[in-house]
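User: Can you model how flavin mononucleotide sits in this protein?
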Amino acid sequence: MSTPTLSEIPPGVVTLEDHARHASQVLDSNAWAYFSGGAADEISLHDNRQAWDRLHIHPRVLRSMAGASTAVELLGRPLAHPILLAPVAFQRMAHPEGELAMAYAAAAQSAGVVLSTQASQPLEAVAQAMLDSPYRGPLWFQLYIQHDRAFTRELVQRAEAAGYEALVLTVDAPTSGARDRERRAGFRLPPGVSAVNLAGLAPPARAPLAPGQSALFDGLLAHTPTWADVEWLQSITRLPVLLKGILHPDDARLAQQLGVAALVVSNHGGRTLDTVPATATVLPRIAQAVPGMPLLVDGGIRRGTDVLKAMALGASAVLVGRPYIYGLANAGAMGVAHVLRLLRDELEIAMALTGCAQLRDFPPGLVEMRA
Ligand SMILES: Cc1cc2nc3c(=O)[nH]c(=O)nc-3n(C[C@H](O)[C@H](O)[C@H](O)COP(=O)(O)O)c2cc1C
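Assistant: Here's the modeled complex, given as structure tokens:
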């Protein structure tokens, strides 16, 4: 197994936004449109970020910080900190080592990894890059249920055999959003980058469309998963199943009734349906709807204070997407590790300055929407 190439962190890059700015110079316009863009007018993409900023922190002083720690527990497993890397497809477009570099960095920084179904490196190799590390975080596989359910079952079996510890079923993307920025840029996957774990999947058999028929409604959506498929997935795997892309409290309750292990409150980083609310706004509503259910949240998390806010609003852990891709583009595995370290350092500072020694039992009113 090859070890990652080590590159320098570019001078002056000291925040996640610095990584984004630098990556915008490093990535070509095709890759930049893919990684940075959102759906349609990108309202939700921007709202995700701004909603964290709109939350005020009301710090407490003179509280003991003895024994302070970022440690949390998630699905019965202790974690050194609550930051996981969100599933992001086609990472070899950002760096030749792609998901392998991501996994090495996550293992070095004790962060969890959720590998995308559309990864551009074999899922087994990514698992190997992480599994030997004694300090690693959780290793999960993100699943898109494919039109061919037999193929999907084999994919699940491969993930189980490779050592993945949970399945994260993404439910908010039965089709791609209207990715106008990508279309304007004429986005294409570059040669040599593909969803290697879906190799061998035949395209769905489709009758030619008659005039007036819809490619979406009369073609693609015939095979999209439903709640029955969540039960089917639970029946074919021994792994815990999480749902990613929950925004409605009623869907959270349905998931809880089915015994889903945890939910990811997510709007896919603003890439699917535009004008859905920011996840920072939705999180407290979901937490109220399904008390006791572990919740993760993603979308626009760029600062340690955002992580603290998410935890205070009821999250058990958070995921970051684009920022680590920018780190990957800027400096490979080292860049991803740097993004994780920056976020964790900022989280520790935020805890110290709010008098929160642990990421639980937060003082009441710590985080409130600005008046
Ligand atoms: C370029 C890109 C590709 C993504 N690919 C996937 C994917 O394959 N599966 C998935 O569940 N989510 C995917 N996501 C969504 C992320 O998992 C995550 O929800 C989102 O990026 C979080 O927002 P953030 O980028 O603002 O941190 C993708 C996001 C981006 C930006």
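A couple of observations from the model: DSSP finds twelve helices and twelve strands in the chain. Residues 34-35, 48, 86-89, 116, 118, 142, 170, 244, 266, 268-269, 271, 298-301, 320-322 surround flavin mononucleotide (CB under 6 Å).
User: Helpful, thanks.
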